[in-house]
Amino acid sequence: MYNLQMDHRDEVDLLIALQSSSQAAFAQIYRLYSARIYLNILKMVKSEDEAQELLQDVFLKVWSKRHLIEPEQSFRSYLFQIAKYTVYNFIRKNKLEKQVQHYMRQQIEEGYTHVEEDLSYREKELWYAETIEQLPPQRRQIYKLCKIHGKSYAEVSELLGISTSTVNDHIVKATKFIKDRYLNRDATLFVAVAYLFLNQLK
């Protein structure tokens, strides 16, 4: 592991060089700090591969924002702050993706949707996300809060300043809209497949 102790004046000179787009200075900073940052990230994500990817993201941000660095300030604190927010954003995004996937699986199990051979699961997710975006703004917001973020009707009611019955009404209408779009898509797909099949028989 590299030693993080460095004379303050030397570090200031190194950061000034980094501000001037010195790749040698950037490489030295990476050697000085990467091991400690990596271990810190690893403690949070528990995955060596993900920790390595996030480490690269951290130093890419350092390079892209090098002009904003204040050499006289604590660079170590600055670097650890970047690492912390990079990991938090990763965890938040990963959690949201898992929530969407869980809800999709739940709907599939309930017979609300089912996986056809003509579409991959990833395409199904994309269709679902695009269909939600077609809802009216308030209905879309309520649907996402309840069905994707897992908030209760009471929580959404308090958050948006509307009654729980209004929340329920939006959820019912949004669910019907999504289901109808799905069934219509199935009908359209069936006609298209039938058309291609009949043409092959000619």
Automatic annotation (TrEMBL):
Family: Belongs to the sigma-70 factor family. ECF subfamily.
Highest taxon of source: Bacteria
Keyword Nuclease: no
Keywords of this entry: DNA-binding, Sigma factor, Transcription, Transcription regulation
Pfam families membership: Sigma70_r2, Sigma70_r4_2
GO MF term list: DNA binding; sigma factor activity
Name of this chain's protein: RNA polymerase sigma factor
Every RNA polymerase sigma factor 70 region 4 type domain range: 128-176
Residue ranges of every copy of the RNA polymerase sigma-70 region domain listed in the record: 30-95
Lineage: Bacteria, Pseudomonadati, Bacteroidota, Sphingobacteriia, Sphingobacteriales
NCBIfam families xref list: Sig70_bacteroi1 (TIGR02985), sigma70-ECF (TIGR02937)
Keyword Cell membrane: no
GO biological process per UniProt: DNA-templated transcription initiation
Entry's transmembrane regions: none
